Amino acid sequence: MSRTSKRYKSVPSTSNGSALPRCDQARMPRVRVLFICLCCVLIFALILGLYISSDANRSNGPIPAADLTKDKFNHKPSKCSPAQVRKFASQIDRKRLWETHLRPILRERIPGTAGSKAVRQHIYSQLGSLSAGWMLEEDSFVSPTPKGSVTFTNVLAVLDPSAQRRLLLACHYDSKIFPPDPRYPGKVFLGASDSAVPCAMILELVTALDVQLSALKQQRAAVTLQLVFFDGEEAFEDWTETDSLYGSRHLSELMARTPHPPGSTHTTLLHAVDLFVLLDLLGGPDPLIVNHFDNTARWFDRLIAAEKSLHKQGLLSSHPSGQSYFRKDIYFGPVQDDHIPFLHRGVPILHLIPTPFPPFWHKMDDSEEKMHPPTVENLMKILAIFLAEYLGL
Ligand SMILES: [Zn+2]
Fold first, then answer.
1. pLDDT at res. 290
2. pLDDT, tens digit (0-9, with 9 covering 90-100), for 346-393
C-alpha cells in the first residue's frame, strides 16, 4: 500500500502546467486499486483452496482431540433405499455363516489352550481370505488368574489403519470353564451364544460386505471398520473386577496409550473409536435387545429402523412384528461385559445383548441345538444395513 500511495502522489503534470483533468486523475488510481483488490481476492481464493485440499487429506497430519470428538458426534449416516436394503440383505449367506464360520468355533476355547489357538487360526484364515485386505494383529499378554498365570490373546483386525476414526465391532471368543457335568457325559461347554455365534456373525458380515468394504478402503474414507475378538471375557471362578474381562481391560488400556495417528501428542486409538458395538449372547430365538445408553440412542434408532424396513419388505423370516428385537421403551438394568473398560474411558457404546439373558445362559445346553438360524440371519441383515449406513457403503 505504501508504494501505491507514493506512485499516486508522483503523477506528472501536463506541459501546460495544469493538472490532468480531475476525472482522469481520479480514475487511474481507482483502476489500480480495483486491480489490486482483484489480485487480493484471487490470492485469498488460492489460499482457501489450498487449505480445503489439505484439510481433506488430514489423515497424514495430527488430529486434534476436539476434532475427533466433534466429528464422531456429528457423524451423519447414509440412508439405504428399499432397493439397497434388498441388495445388502441378499448378500448375507446363512449357510456360509453356519458351515464356514460357526462350526469351527463350536469347540472348547479356554484361554491359553489349543482350542483357543485353533479358533484364532480360524479367524485369521477367514479374514485373510477376503479381498478387502484386513490388517491383522494380536494383543497377547500374561495375567494372573485364580488358576495361576494365563496367556491371553485378543485378535484385532483393522480395514484401514491410517483412517482417522473407527467403528468398532466386538465380541469375545473365549468359552467359560465348566467342570464335567454327569448329566452330559463326554460333553464340554461350547458357549454357542456365548459367544461363538456373535464371532461367526462378525465374520459373515465382513465376508458378505467384502466388495463394499474393499471400495471403502480404496476411497480412504475418514471412518473405517475395526474388529475385536476378545479373549478372557469369562471369569475363571466367580465374576469379580479382577476375575473377568481380561482381554478388554488390557486392550482398553493399550489403546488409551497408543497415539493415533502415530506420533500424535493429543489423541490416542481410544479417541479414534466413533462407536463400540458389542455383540454377546446372540443366537437363540426371540432376543429382546434394549437400549443401554442415552448418548448412543440415535444409533440404536438406526437398528430399529433397519429392522422395520427389512420387515416391511418381507425380508425377515420367523419375525412376527416390525419391532420384534430392538426396543427402546423397556429396560432391565445394566450388564457387565467387555464394553465396561471402554465405557469407563469415555467410549460411546452400543451393547447388543438380549435381556433378560437366554434361559440356556451359562448352562451346558448353550449349544448349537438351542440356536435359531432364522433369527441369526435376521440379525445379520439388520447389522448389514446398520454398517452400510454408518460407513456409507
Ligand atoms: Zn458368558
1. 97
2. 999 999 999 999 999 999 999 999 999 999 999 999 999 999 999 999
Pull the grid cell for residue 110: 479356554
**Catalytic entry in 280, 307, 338, 377:** 280
- Which residues, in sequence order, are CB contacts of 104 under 8 Å at separation 6+? 118, 119, 122
Cα of 362 to ligand 1 centre, how many Å? 6
280 is catalytic: yes
CB-proximal residues (5 Å) to ion ligand 1: 194
Active site annotation includes 241: no
Q: At 199, give phi and psi (nearest 5°).
A: -65, -45
Domain boundaries, the chain: 68-391
- How many Å lie between the centroid of ligand 1 and the Cα of residue 104? 19
Q: Which of 160, 231, 233, 338 is catalytic?
A: 233
CATH number of 68-391: 3.40.630.10
106 CA to centre of ligand 1 in angstroms: 14
CA of 194 to the centre of ligand 1 (A): 5
| Section 330-340 average pLDDT | 95
